[in-house]
Amino acid sequence: MARAVLEGAVESAREAAVEMAGDPGAVGAHLGMEEVDGSVASHRFVAELPGYRGWVWDVVLATASRSKRVGVSEVHLIPSDDALLAPAWVPWEERIRPGDLDAQMMLPYEKNDPRLVPGYEEIDVDVDSAMWWEWGLGRARVLGVTGRDAAVERWHKGTQGPLAASAQQSPEGCGTCAFAIPLAGSMRDMFAVCANEWSPSDGRVVSHDHGCGAHSETDVEPQTSRWPHDSPVVDTVAPDQVDLEAQESAASESQTESSVPEAEQEPPESPAGQAAHEKVEQSID
């Protein structure tokens, strides 16, 4: 009997959903009932709310044994399988990406950063070799093997590596350029800093197999002026001879011809008139 009472309480569930929504138009069609146990069930309605595509109103009803009345236990919105959901929350320290920081922002310290190691810790190379390139004296932490490998891969595949368009067109690499200042430590064999103000890479880290058109050993000869050395196309130096009297005479004749009235000018003779004129001349002869 309790199930029948819960199944018949569709309008009671709709009224509860409308009261929660505050707008009758926000509660759509009835989607059915889901039984929780013998005396508790939930009715679901389409949520007609902007921005809540795929969401439904879930109204939980309860009834007592042998009772014909139902009570509203809970009303809330729940997402269906195709509901529009907000992306999962990601903490700020995990959401920030390289390039997001500006001069006014402070990046929080990351404890146990895998890229860093204590400054005096022995690394996975020969200790004597490590003394030549980086002991980390005066610093609590130095860049470890993981951090160096990540930087090497990032720089070499980036715009300052051998895959850049300028590197593909350059006849020489940065490794033979006098303007390339090698980095210290283990990076020395692969990278340098460009010190050529005419280069697009000035002040940036470049790989030895990178390159550009501002290489110190370029053999391109300076180009001379491309203006013609012979006489100019338009002579602006020699004087032009102008006959003013001939020009005035031509202008006067043109003005005289244009001043003759149209009525005084003989109209062109038609073909019929010309034939008649020829017959008259033959008869006279």
Low-pLDDT parts are: none
The largest β sheet comes out as:
4 strands, antiparallel
Helix content: 25-40%
- So how many helices? 8
Q: Give the CA-CA distance, first to last residue.
A: 141 Å
Question: Care to describe what's here?
Answer:
This protein is an alpha+beta fold. Among the domains are: 2-79; 109-217, no CATH class. Helix content is 27%, strand content 19%. It has eight helices and nine strands. It has helices at residues 2-7, 10-21, 92-95, 127-133, 145-157, 165-169, 244-258, 271-284; strands at 27-37, 40-47, 55-63, 70-79, 116-118, 141-143, 180-182, 191-194, 205-207. The strands form three sheets. The chain has a four-stranded antiparallel sheet. A three-stranded antiparallel sheet has the order 7-8-9, with no helix packed on it. The chain has a two-stranded antiparallel sheet with strand order 5-6. A hairpin with a 2-residue loop joins strand 1 and strand 2. The longest helix has 15 residues, at 244-258. The protein is flat.
Compile the SSE list and pairings.
Blueprint: H1 2-7, H2 10-21, E1 27-37, E2 40-47, E3 55-63, E4 70-79, H3 92-95, E5 116-118, H4 127-133, E6 141-143, H5 145-157, H6 165-169, E7 180-182, E8 191-194, E9 205-207, H7 244-258, H8 271-284
Antiparallel strand pairs: 1-2, 2-3, 3-4, 5-6, 7-8, 8-9
